[in-house]
Amino acid sequence: MENPEVLEARKRLAAKFGDNIRIAGKGSMRKKKKNPHKTNQVDDKKVKNALKKLGVQPLPDIDEVNFFQDDNNVLHFSSPQIEGNIKDNFFMISGKGEVKSIRDLMPGIIPHLAQKILSF
């Protein structure tokens, strides 16, 4: 019969190292725990490298960006970061966008609206 001290030590080791997954029987190698890859940083680097190839430059002094949708909503960026290549007519807008109603933005947005949108 096993010594109680040995059994207790084994329990402590199991708690310390967790339940490792074995490939085969006793004495075989254990699988290493696979950590999930963090793709956000990799994707950001890929996007930045692609933008460098397109020759974009930061465009300063733009306070807000509004995209008008057909359902009378606006995709509103209050403090965007804009990069673009004016020669190739290519622009990238990054930041936190919010979908708002035109009525919510009404006092300051009137100069941006066309007559077609104002008639709703």
Automatic annotation (TrEMBL):
The keyword Transcription regulation applies. Signal peptide: none annotated. InterPro entries: BTF3, NAC_A/B_dom_sf, Nas_poly-pep-assoc_cplx_dom. Keywords: Transcription, Transcription regulation. CDD domains: NAC_BTF3. Residues 41-106 form the NAC-A/B domain. Transmembrane segments: none annotated. Pfam families: NAC (PF01849). Gene3D superfamilies: Nascent polypeptide-associated complex domain. Part of the nascent polypeptide-associated complex (NAC). PANTHER family: TRANSCRIPTION FACTOR BTF3 FAMILY MEMBER (PTHR10351). Belongs to the NAC-beta family. This is Nascent polypeptide-associated complex subunit beta. It comes from Stentor coeruleus.
